[in-house]
Amino acid sequence: MSPEIITGRFAPSPTGPLHFGSLSCALASYLEMKKLGGHWLVRMEDIDPPREIKGASSQILNQLEAHGLCWDGKVLFQSTRLDAYQDSLNILKEKNLAYHCECSRQRVNALRGIYDNHCRRSNLSSTDNATRLRLNQPNHLIEFVDQIVGQYTQSLTHDVGDFVIRRRDNLFSYQLAVTIDDQYQKVTHVMRGSDLLDSTPRQIYLQRCLGFTQPQYAHLPVAISPLGQKLSKQNLASALVPGEETLNIWAALNWLNQSPPNDLKIGSVSEILTWAISHWDSTSVKRSLTMPAPEGF
Prior knowledge:
Elements: E1 7-10, H1 20-36, E2 39-44, H2 56-66, E3 76-77, H3 82-94, E4 98-101, H4 105-110, E5 130-133, E6 141-146, E7 150-155, H5 156-159, E8 163-166, H6 174-184, E9 189-193, H7 200-210, E10 216-220, E11 222-224, H8 245-255, H9 269-279, E12 290-292
Helix pairs in contact: 1-8, 1-9, 6-7, 8-9
C-alpha cells in the first residue's frame, strides 16, 4: 500500500481576476503544502456559467504564475466532471438519500434559509425540480476541529435542513461538486476562506454518505473592505496590479501574521517565496473570521 501523499488545493471560480483576498488564500494553501512537502493543485470551479466571465480562467492562472504559485499536475476544470457528479447523485438516490423538490427560493428564504423538508414525501419527478440530500437522523450534528478556528459544531437539522445538491436548472451544487472532486484528487488538506466554514459540515455529511475520506480543514480570515464587505468579485474588489507581485505577496504574508522582513519588498518573487516557505507558520494566522484588508487593496 503506497503512502498517502499530502495534497492541498486552490479552487477559484472564474468570475473575475484574483484580488487580495483570493491571493491570500492561494498563498496560504500553497505555503502550507510546500512546508509539509506535499502537492498543491489548482482546480477551476467552472460549473456555474451564468456567473462566469469569459477569459477569467486564463487570467487567474496567469496571475498565479506571475506570483510564483506554480501548481503540481494539470489544472482540473469542473466542467469536465459532470458525469462523475451525476454518478454520485445516482448513488445517493439508490441509497434513498436524495429526492426532488419544487420549493422556490422565495419559500426557502421565508423560512430564513432553513429548509423544512416540505417535499421529502412528495415523490416528485426531476423535471424542473431541484434535488435535495436527505438528512437521515432527527438531529444531525457535525463536529470537526479546524486547524485555525478550532472546534466547530453545526446541527444540519436545525441550521440547514435537507440541502440542494442539484439545482432546478440542472446545474450541480457547489457542495456536491467540491466534495466529489476533493475525493477524486485525493485532497488531504483544505485551506480556504472562513466564508466557507459553515458549508464544511454539509461536505462532511456528503463524504460520509458516499464513503469518502474527510480532509483536514483550515479556514482563514476573510479580507474585508472599510465598509465591512468581503473582498469579492461581486463587490467589485480591485484586481491585483500587474508588476507588483512581490509587494502583493509581502502584503499577504504580513496580513497572515507571518512578519516578513521589509527588505523582501524589493526582492524577487522567487526570493520572497523561498523565505515564506521556510518561515511559514499556520499557527500564527489570527483566529478571526474576518480581518480588514491592507490599505490599497
